[in-house]
Specification:
The complex is a heterodimer of chains A (454) and B (180). With 454 residues, chain A is of the alpha+beta class. Chain A folds into three domains: 107 residues; 156 residues, Jelly Rolls, CATH 2.60.120.1440; 168 residues, Jelly Rolls. Chain A is built from four helices and 30 strands. In chain A, helix 1 crosses helix 2 and helix 1 crosses helix 3. The radius of gyration of chain A is 27 Å and the shape is globular. Chain B has 180 residues and is mainly α. Chain B has nine helices and no strands. The chains are: A alpha+beta (454), B mainly alpha (180). Chains A and B meet through helix 1, helix 2, helix 3 and helix 4 of A and helix 1, helix 2, helix 3, helix 5 and helix 6 of B.
Chain lengths: 454, 180
């Protein structure tokens, strides 16, 4: 069975219609065949079949029984009364059991509701891509929705496409983008533990004596009210302050520094702990694949001069649990560390060199962007037909970033995101294939401004 | 029946009852008629009470109940004396596979929010739209009967049902997403 591709919009509409007819018992033979084909080829179609059936059952319950907090499904149509055709005594007992079960169900639901009365400290205000949240008692879920309230816990971005924005009750916002893991809590004082990756924050003034505390492996940050970005690696923490002031303490020797707006610092045991003015933005960038796997998402391989192979990074799979579909992605970190911020301009061109080992239907190249204040601005991408690249031959794509469009998976939150990639800062550059492993490898990535090149 | 057996029966019946909404949805997807599906699940529940001792605790109650409901659906089909074509049977198998794959507790976790949103969205429907849905889901009327009741052609009823259900689904999705 081939289950590789998403339903096209027209197929989606047709599916909805066919499912609706099936639920009304009105499908003709030819339509049945059509529905069978959709159901066998697309997990999405099977999911839809189940979801729409459940939806109608819920709808029927409300229309029959009126509005109640929980479904009842106990109102019988005029055609038949509950157990009416059953012999008396035994089934009366059954009815009694079932009635008592309603009561038990109600009690259990009330108790569950009681358990759900957790102390919510923040709500999700934006998200996309694969994310996982771990809450109290190790409760793990990937089914997060915008608007959901969270009682603290660990949020994990699982691939370069991940983006998550959280707003605390006081309006302070925290954004993770890409592969990151952040523990957050607010027990009268906000505490964030950055286990991996990075985040940007816009923090409202905090109560006196209770600054927001951000812990990494190598530093502790005290934040009173400001905008900043922080990135944590195994042996270093990079902090860039856009507005206000952040106190950073290097854990290896206890030294502290106040980092004012438009300044940055790296806290690492083996580096000088000094303030540096945030450098001016530049419009060029070149990968550092030759230096190793730092800042790379994917399977990094050193080059082999004897075979004329350059160092490269191979895409790795990420399977979306809900759909069972797999994205083969590779990504390079652009923002952070010693590099100045890289901005996209009208004439910016992105050059991507690499190889594929198998034919693919589509190839995606994209950039993750942020505003100068650190706010997530969106992921912009270009979708290229598989024919753009030849199997087992080196490819070189020279792409005009002005042609990049907002990733459609972000359309729900597009009102919060940028309309165009121009003027924004690049945090990551990525490339992926969908559903099938094409053995995608990147050998080189470069961003330049066409106008500045002769 | 000793008290241990009674406890076991109550426990299993209770578990089965918790799957009831999903089981009705399953029967409904197979039968294409809500009332008949509801009847099938009622009968299946009686079978659960009678045959609770055949259920192995620790295995999936949903899968066990679903197999009972499937038998009830077959029984109803036989009673209706409708010849099922090969294609119709294949479609039932495909639907069965869909439920096998996507039946999970996760659906239940969103029920409360979706239900609340659905109630709200129903309030936004036109009187006529609501009458069509009411006729179909609450009164189990045929397209023709609904048409007569609200003054619409058979085809218009079919389209109206489709359109209003879609409108409701979109509205619920939007509400759930924008919750708070």
């Amino acid at each position: 069975m081939n289950e590789k591709f998403k339903l096209e919009d027209s197929e989606q509409q047709r599916l909805e219609y066919l499912v609706s007819l099936q639920l009304d018992g009105e499908l003709c033979e030819a339509e049945m065949e059509e529905l069978i084909e959709l159901l066998s080829l697309h997990p999405e179609a099977r999911q839809r079949m189940v979801a729409d059936s459940l939806f109608d059952v819920e709808l029927a319950d409300i229309l029959r029984n009126g509005v109640s907090e929980t479904p009842r499904h106990n109102h019988r149509s005029g055609r038949r009364q509950l157990f009416a055709r059953s012999p008396g005594g035994v089934l009366l007992a059954v009815a009694a059991i079932i009635l008592s079960l309603f009561a038990m169900q109600w009690v259990l639901e009330s108790r569950d509701f009681g358990e759900r009365q957790e102390h919510h400290i923040a709500k999700i205000t934006g998200m996309s891509g694969p994310l996982q949240w771990t809450g109290d008692g190790g409760r793990v879920t990937t089914k997060l929705t915008v608007g959901a309230q969270l009682p603290g816990g660990t949020i994990e971005g699982q691939s370069p496409e991940s983006w998550f924005e959280l707003m605390f009750k006081d309006g302070s916002r925290v954004v993770i983008a890409g592969q990151s893991r952040l523990v957050f809590s607010d027990l009268e004082q906000k505490e964030l533990h950055l286990i991996e990756g990075g985040f940007a924050a816009s923090v409202e003034p905090q109560p006196a004596g209770k600054p927001m505390l951000v812990y990494t492996r190598t530093a502790v940050l005290e934040v009173l009210g400001t905008e900043f970005e922080v990135e944590s690696e195994l042996a270093s923490t990079f902090l860039n302050v856009t507005e206000g002031k952040v106190r950073v303490k290097r854990l290896s020797d206890g030294q502290s520094l106040d980092v004012p707006a438009k300044h940055r610092v790296t806290a690492a045991a083996d580096q000088s702990f000094e303030l540096e003015a945030t450098p001016e933005m530049v419009s060029f960038w070149k990968d550092r694949l030759a230096l190793g796997p730092k800042g790379v998402y994917g399977d990094w391989r050193p080059g082999d001069a004897s075979e004329g192979r350059r160092p490269a990074v191979k895409s790795i799979p990420h399977t979306i649990k809900e759909t069972g579909k797999t994205i083969y992605c590779t990504s390079l970190r652009v923002f952070g560390g010693e590099s100045p911020p890289v901005v996209l301009r009208r004439d910016s061109q992105l050059v991507v060199e690499g190889r594929i080992a198998k034919k693919t239907k589509l190839l995606f190249v994209g950039v993750t962007l942020q505003h100068p204040n650190g706010d997530f601005a969106g992921r912009f991408q270009i979708r290229l037909p598989g024919e753009s690249v030849n199997v087992n031959e080196k490819f070189e794509l020279d792409l005009d970033v002005e042609d990049f469009k907002l990733d459609p998976s972000l359309r729900e939150t597009r009102h919060k995101l940028a309309d165009s990639p121009l003027g924004l800062i690049v945090t990551d550059i990525w490339c992926h294939t969908l559903w099938d492993s094409a053995g995608l490898e990147l050998e080189g990535v470069e961003l330049y401004e066409a106008a500045s090149v002769d | 029946m000793n008290s241990n057996e009674e406890e076991k029966r109550d426990r299993i019946v209770k578990l089965a009852f918790e799957c009831r909404v999903q089981l009705i949805a399953y029967a409904y997807a197979l039968l294409g008629d809500y009332s008949t599906a509801d009847d099938a699940v009622q009968d299946a529940m009686l079978t659960v009470v009678r045959k609770y001792d055949q259920f192995t605790e620790g295995t999936s109650i949903m899968a066990w109940c679903r197999s009972i409901v499937r038998l009830e659906v077959l029984r109803i089909r036989q009673k209706q004396k409708k010849d099922r074509t090969l294609v119709a049977r294949l479609l039932e198998d495909s639907i069965d596979q869909a439920f096998d794959e996507y039946f999970s507790a996760d659906f239940a976790s969103q029920d409360a929010r979706k239900r609340k949103a659905l109630v709200k969205c129903l309030g936004n429907l036109t009187k006529r739209g609501r009458s069509v849905l009411q006729g179909r889901f609450a009164e189990s009327l045929s397209y023709e009967q609904i048409g007569k009741k609200v003054g619409m052609s058979l085809e218009a009823v079919r389209k109206s049902l489709y359109r209003h259900k879609k409108q409701l689904r979109d509205c619920v999705e939007l509400n759930v997403r924008n919750v708070e």
